[in-house]
Amino acid sequence: MEHIVHVLIGDLSGAADAAIKTSALFFTAAILLRFTERRTLAEFAPFDWIAAVAAGAIVGRAATATDTSWLSATVALVCLLLAHAVLTRLRFVPWMRRFVDPPLKVLIRDGQVDRRNLRRCGLTAADLQAVLRQHGHDSADGVHLAIFEAKGAISVLCADARK
């Protein structure tokens, strides 16, 4: 029974250590993230999501790990954020941008739905119809272009907007 209590509750000093390290890592991550480039969630590219998940994994793993110090976790966070900043800057180099950002896909051109690109983007006809309705269109007929953007949004350009 004593073993079960120890497994479920542990020792108070270990819990206190975890609380202190978790708080320190949270504040450290908040301060480090303050110095990174500000991007809204809607503007997140795939590599932004990877960095966010990896930062959470570093903080989450190190917070309760007895073999990982606050300093080790902080160094890992700094390295991750530096790599993210470098990749963000490298996107300004055309060949690197093509490597990092997915290409745009035309879903509708002059009222004609490109089913192949729709499938490549993992979208169904119903998904496209929902986006068209959100943009005020009941069908693809009045649409000049619908483009699946690099960040996952769909831009819709009307046929009469070409002027």
UniProtKB/TrEMBL annotation:
The chain crosses the membrane at residues 18-35, 47-64, 70-88. Keywords: Cell membrane, Membrane, Transmembrane, Transmembrane helix. GO terms for cellular component: plasma membrane. It is found in: Cell membrane. Residues 95-160 form the YetF C-terminal domain. It holds the Pfam family DUF421. Its main location: membrane. It is a multi-pass membrane protein. Coiled coil: none annotated. Belongs to the UPF0702 family. This is Putative membrane protein [Chthonomonas calidirosea T49]. It comes from Mycobacterium shimoidei.
